[in-house]
Design brief:
By secondary structure, the protein is of the alpha+beta class. It has helices at about 1-25, 30, 40-45, 45-60, 70-85, 90-110, 120-130, 140-145, 185-190, 330-340, and strands spanning about 150-155, 165-175, 180-185, 195-200, 205-215, 220-225, 245-250, 260-275, 280-285, 300, 305-315, 325-330. Helices cover about 35% and strands about 25% of the residues. The protein has a six-stranded antiparallel β-barrel with strand order 1-2-3-6-5-4. The protein has a six-stranded antiparallel beta barrel with strand order 7-8-9-12-11-10.
């Protein structure tokens, strides 16, 4: 009898706990939807499963040898360190590239952005230049352009060398071909035993007459020695040349120079009778730029530095032949034809 009572006491409380646990594990949905398909009951069991998993996880967290223990942390650190050692070079390259990019971005950030120019900025710059800097005049530009092509022609008398001989006369010439072909007046070289050419760079050379046109007082010379960088003059047709247009006469008046004088075109298609009255030069350009003995054979140029004529004579009533404001030049078309050139 005692055994039976002991057995009843020990079993009944456990059954009540079990039934209470089962009743608690059941959700209200199970009582309300008892007749639903099996899949509903499986979904309703999810909270119980999750609760069981959570309980297992909690129990496992306290178990020895889990990942959160110090020994597990040391193993994880050792694996990470071994991985870093194996890929050390790769990490160095990546870090170097990253550092370089960072420095580049920092540098680019320090560079000030360029401000776009506006019309107001351009106008202000031009005005500042005009106020503070004197621009070269058209005459200056024209002379600088023709200067390398202008030569001095000296007549040398006697059998001596040009440096030892006597100077019989001085005139001017202009280079029209870079091989040393020079245009001048015939009266500049007429009767000369020897001719010396002084180029713009200081080169000296003898020359010979290779062509003449007496009716236009023109002569063509060929220098025996030519500078390497000899620059021929630019020739311009007289078509379109107007009275009143600015011109310059360049040469060696009285063996001084090269000198430049400016004036205007005073007339076109003028005639001039030579001093000996033996010939009349026709279709000449009249100008008022100062010209004197020594200017003969030199270029008459426009403000762009282009040759439109060869200075050939001045009209002077006095015996000294001083300039009174009337000079004449052979049109470049006529002079170029004498040199065998056809530039127009």
């Amino acid at each position: 009898m005692k055994k039976q009572s002991l057995y009843s006491k020990s079993v009944r409380p456990r059954r009540r706990e079990s039934s209470a646990t089962d009743d608690n594990a059941r959700s209200p949905d199970q009582f309300q939807h008892h007749s639903q398909p099996p899949q509903s009951s499986s979904s309703s069991e999810a909270p119980a499963t999750a609760a069981g998993s959570a309980a297992v996880a909690t129990t496992g967290a306290a178990a020895p040898g889990n990942a959160s223990t110090p020994s597990a942390k040391r193993k994880r650190f050792a694996r990470a360190r071994a991985f870093a050692s194996r890929h050390e070079k790769f990490f160095l390259v990546i870090s170097s590239v990253a550092l370089s990019l960072l420095l580049a971005f920092v540098y680019l950030g320090t560079i000030p952005k360029e401000r776009k120019l506006t019309q107001k900025d351009i106008d202000a710059a031009v005005l500042h230049t005009l106020e503070n800097k004197t621009l070269p005049s058209p005459e200056v530009k024209a002379f600088e352009r023709i200067r390398p092509s202008v030569v001095r022609i000296t007549q040398i008398g006697g059998d001596k060398t040009p440096s030892e001989g006597k100077t019989l006369g001085v005139g001017t010439g202009v280079v029209v071909v870079d091989k040393g072909v020079i245009l001048t007046n015939l009266h500049v070289v007429a009767g000369a035993e020897k001719l010396q050419i002084d180029f713009a760079d200081g080169t000296k050379s003898e020359a010979v007459v290779i062509g003449q046109q007496p009716e236009n007082d023109l002569a063509v010379l060929q220098a025996s020695k030519v500078p390497d960088d000899l620059i021929p003059a630019t020739l311009r047709s007289t078509n379109g040349l107007a009275i009143g247009e600015k011109v310059m006469a360049v040469g060696f008046p009285f063996n001084i120079g090269p000198s430049a004088s400016s004036g205007i075109v005073s007339g076109l298609k003028r005639n001039y009778q030579s001093e000996d009255e033996k010939r009349v030069l026709a279709n000449l350009i009249q100008f008022d730029a100062a010209a004197n003995p020594g200017n003969s054979g030199g270029p008459l140029i426009t403000m762009s530095g282009e040759v439109v004529g060869i200075v050939t004579a001045i009209l002077s009533p006095n015996p000294q032949g001083s300039f009174i404001g009337i000079g004449f030049a052979v049109p470049i078309e006529t002079a170029a034809a004498a040199a065998g050139e056809a530039p127009f």
